[in-house]
Amino acid sequence: MRILIAEDDLASARYMQSLMGRFGECLVVSDGEQAVEEFKKALDEECPFQLVCLDIMMPHKNGQQALQDIRALEKEHGVKSSQEVKVLMTTALGDVRTVIGAYKEGATAYVTKPIVPELIFETLRNMGVSA
Fold first, then answer.
1. Alpha carbons 111 and 89: distance in angstroms, whole number
2. Cβ pair 3, 52 in contact under 8 A
3. Whole-angstrom distance, CA of residue 120 vs CA of residue 16
């Protein structure tokens, strides 16, 4: 499984990478703009990601904007809705408006920080992701 992690905080990025590494090969980027670029590159090379972990608060392009762009890229590439990448939003923002906004943009799941390994693993299982 190919996993894209977009997280601007280096410590959080390393932590997510250590958690997600058991599920597959991880690529870590530090902002939403890079996430969209890497996602597009993977689609163009026909080697797509199966899971994307997006922090919401990032520079250049936040996680929700990146998610919008990722879903648009999938449509451009003819990806069927049943084949869309699974997207896990991670953020310190747990307010209802932010959570609902993430799901409206196409998030598969949403986890608030601080990241608790057991919760992440349970969420991934619920998303159909297994090690």
1. 6
2. yes
3. 10
**What length does the chain have?**
131
Residue-wise pLDDT for 77-128, tens only, equals 999 989 999 999 998 876 778 778 888 889 999 998 899 999 999 999 999 9
Ordered structural domains, the chain, with CATH: 2-126 (3.40.50.2300)
Burial label for 38, CB within 10 Å (0-12, 13-18, 19+), is middle
Q: Is the dihedral of CA 45, 10, 96, 123 positive or negative?
A: positive
Say if pTM beats, i.e. exceeds, 0.90.
Answer: yes
Taken in order 126, 23, 71, 45, the sign of the CA dihedral is negative
